[in-house]
Design goal:
The chain is an alpha/beta fold. 49% of the residues lie in helices and 10% in strands. The chain has 15 helices and eleven strands. The protein has a five-stranded parallel β-sheet with strand order 2-5-8-1-9. A two-stranded antiparallel sheet has the order 3-4. A two-stranded antiparallel ribbon has the order 6-7. Helix 9 packs across helix 11, helix 13 packs across helix 14 and helix 14 crosses helix 15. The termini are far apart.
Length: 372
């Protein structure tokens, strides 16, 4: 009887341990399922956010870019994005990755201009514990982190000639060693590089390796500056304002006169400058309407007329229909002044007004006169 009692206690203990193991296993499985679902949801959201339908532009140059992105996204081909700062190179890199068969894999980014060679090598290739001062643990580099996905190397034109040789080997062989290790690591990764430099000129000047340039320049995509696609300003503005409105949790609108003013700028900072300008304007727009006055408070001024070869600044801009009912009073007056070369008497005749009426409106509408 004592033996039977001991056996029962033993069986109870074993069954309790088995039940606990089953419960822990179920909890781990549920946690893994939840983590997997969260990752899948994040990836779906990223694909939706970076889908080809979210790329804004209707000009022929941008339609060519979007069609190239659609075609090249299907393959592992290396892509070189060229264009001025602020033209949307990272946005295009995102679109290529999230519309490719690698969309379920990692998308890893690195700004090559932000790090010196020693740190750049560690960031890309990783290091072993004790490989250098401060390396207190082994660490995977971006090439390992992005295995099965895409690596976006921004500002690739800034890397030194010494590091160019190390990068070339990875692109050629698909293998590398961590700093402090002799073990070769292989990686399956797609490379998208971006630069605002003219790498062809850098190759000719000996500042960039020719063999690395051709490794990167398999599929070049040039992003035009905003000044070459001013027709896209209205659509871009609406897209950016909608995004700002979502962040601010309110409704924002842009008037037609504000859109016309935006379309008259040269935008040296490209889309990034336009976005910054609209964000400032949204802050100054307490009522949620972005008009010309709000843009003025945000620091946007009337674009000065550009001189043509014959020296006539008025000929550089298309004539504005002064009878257009869509023009507000301030914009109509400015258009007349520009057409008249900022001579008030001539502008008065164009508007069938007296010089005194013109002078009064210039003062009340706070228009800054220019000397031509």
């Amino acid at each position: 009887e004592p033996a039977l009692s001991d056996a029962l206690r033993f069986l109870e203990l074993v069954s309790g341990l088995i039940g606990q193991a089953v419960r822990l296993g179920r909890e781990r499985t549920e946690a893994a399922d939840q983590a997997r679902a969260a990752r899948d949801g994040a990836r779906r959201a990223a694909r939706d956010r970076h889908g080809l339908g979210n790329l804004v532009g209707h000009t022929p140059a941008m339609r060519t870019v979007f069609e190239t992105v659609r075609l090249v996204a299907k393959w592992k081909t290396t892509v070189l994005l060229r264009g001025e700062s602020g033209t949307g190179k990272e946005l295009i890199a995102n679109a290529i990755h999230y519309n490719s068969p690698r969309a379920s894999g990692p998308f890893v980014k690195l700004n090559c201009a932000a790090l010196p060679d020693t740190l750049l090598e560690s960031e890309l290739f990783g290091h072993e514990r004790g490989a250098f001062t401060g390396a207190i643990a082994s660490r995977k580099g971006r090439f390992e982190q992005g295995d099965g996905g895409t690596l976006f190397l921004d500002e690739i034109g800034e890397i030194s000639p010494a590091f160019q040789a190390k990068l070339l080997r990875v692109l050629q062989e698909g293998e590398f060693e961590r700093i402090g290790s002799s073990k070769t690591v292989r990686t399956d990764i797609r490379i998208i590089a971006a630069t605002n430099k003219d790498l062809g000129t850098a190759v000719a000047d000996g500042r960039f390796r020719e063999d690395l340039f051709y490794r990167l320049n398999v599929m070049p995509i040039r992003l035009p500056p905003l000044r070459e696609r001013l027709e896209d300003i209205p659509a871009l503005t609406q897209f950016l304002v909608d995004r700002i409105a979502e962040l601010q949790g309110r409704r924002l609108t842009v008037t037609d006169s504000a859109l016309r003013l935006l379309a008259r700028q040269s935008w040296p900072g490209n889309v990034r400058e336009l976005e910054n300008c609209l964000e400032r304007a949204a802050i100054f727009s307490e009522g949620g309407t972005i008009d010309r006055d709000v843009l003025g408070r945000a620091g946007l001024t009337e674009a000065p007329p550009e001189a043509t070869p014959d020296g006539d600044p008025r000929a550089a801009r298309p004539r504005v229909d002064l009878s257009d009912p869509g023009l507000d009073e301030r914009e109509r007056l400015i258009a007349a002044l520009e057409e008249a070369g900022w001579v008030q008497a001539k502008a008065a005749r164009l508007l069938n007004m007296t010089p005194r009426q013109i002078a009064y409106r210039i003062q009340t509408l706070n228009i800054k006169m220019r000397q031509i």
